[in-house]
Amino acid sequence: MDYHKVTEQELRRLREIIPEDRILTGEEIGEDYSHDELGGITNAPEVLIRVLSTEEISEIMKYANCQHIPVVVRGSGTGLVGASVALHGGIMLETTGMNRILELDTENLTVTVEPGVLLMELSQFAEENDFLYPPDPGEKSATIGGNISTNAGGMRAVKYGVTRDYVRGLTVVLPTGEVIKLGGKVVKNSSGYSLKDLMIGSEGTLGIITEAVLKLVALPKVSVSLLIPFADMDAALEAVPEIIKSKAVPTAIEFMERGTILFAEEYLGKKFPDSKSDAYILLTFDGNSLEQVERDYDTVAKLCIDRGALDVYIVDTDERKQSVWSARGAFLEAIKASTTAMDECDVVVPRNRVADFIKFTHQLAQEIGMRIPSFGHAGDGNLHVYLCRDEMEEKEWQKKLDTVFDAMYRKAEEYHGLVSGEHGIGFAKRRYLSRQYGEAQMRIMRGIKLAFDPNGILNPGKVV
Prior knowledge:
Keywords: FAD, Flavoprotein, Oxidoreductase. The protein contains 15 helices and 18 strands. The protein is an alpha+beta fold. The longest helix is centred in the C-terminal third of the chain and has 23 residues, at 430-452.
């Protein structure tokens, strides 16, 4: 599709809508705005606009739609699939300035926020008011708008679910500039097609989220973690389906390998409580009484010992929790720091195939001659597998990337999994999504895109 370039005439019109000090062009736009966290896909916008309201976004979209100027929305830029990259130049709207927590409704157990509120800010605000916002993606500096746009998951999904489960209502600016409100504070809604749920996970291709009504739950009074070492990854992951079947309900079940822990130790300059074993499961249990939490973790501890666990470490003090979970939170950055470049395979498979998939990545690493560390959410089957360039030449790196990605996504399909568990499709995974879903599903999704965005100006080149 041909898009209109942003000329001086367009800039004059945009400056009538937005004060000039919030409009950046050319070299005024920092290099960071040309890529996301991984940086493998790059292109700079022609104009960067720091928006502050629904009304501003609406006016910009009305003009961009009439002029056929492509528009991309960006929050903190922490994505990993190129979803916030301005592939066709045009206008980039930065929403980090829309960062107000607008309302806490203690009667309806909701909080209303703007899209630029950071996850860590919302989590802290909720806890200060004795509530919990359960979605817990690893990148705490991501914006809520970005979390909703990718349906971010995180470590607490085993017990609490993902972002989609906590979005009650959205205010959205359509590519045409029209403003619509989807859902609200109601708990039930069977009123027509769920357009709200189409927005969640749409990666900024259908509309621009400018306000969100989110569900909260009561803050659990007790939280305890278990760190459980195993002799090898097979034994660790084979215990997970048994944990799921037990009557205990963990909040999180994470798996990690010794190599990844050592990267985190070096990156943080801090020792992990134990790094002698080849594989670990990290679990969290929460509840309103210590007795209930102790029953749950005691059940799982005994089950793991029976399945070959080497020990069980109880992580119940603030210092221990900080030591363990800060290391877990640093895995991505630690792996990134250990190599010259990397890319990520974010797949989800049925929980009983996690061990098989990880074994496959180990075999693939040996066969292809590439370092492929991994970690992930064993409790929901979402795996984060990292491909490390190390000392490879560019041509060799690109060739091996294609080979490994193709092999891993085919294996995920074989195991009845999907190409993304929580990071989305963006630009990087489009061909894998198309291959897995086939023409019928892709045609329906393209039809949905066309209904929302008839001129194809909003985040073009992504997802479908």
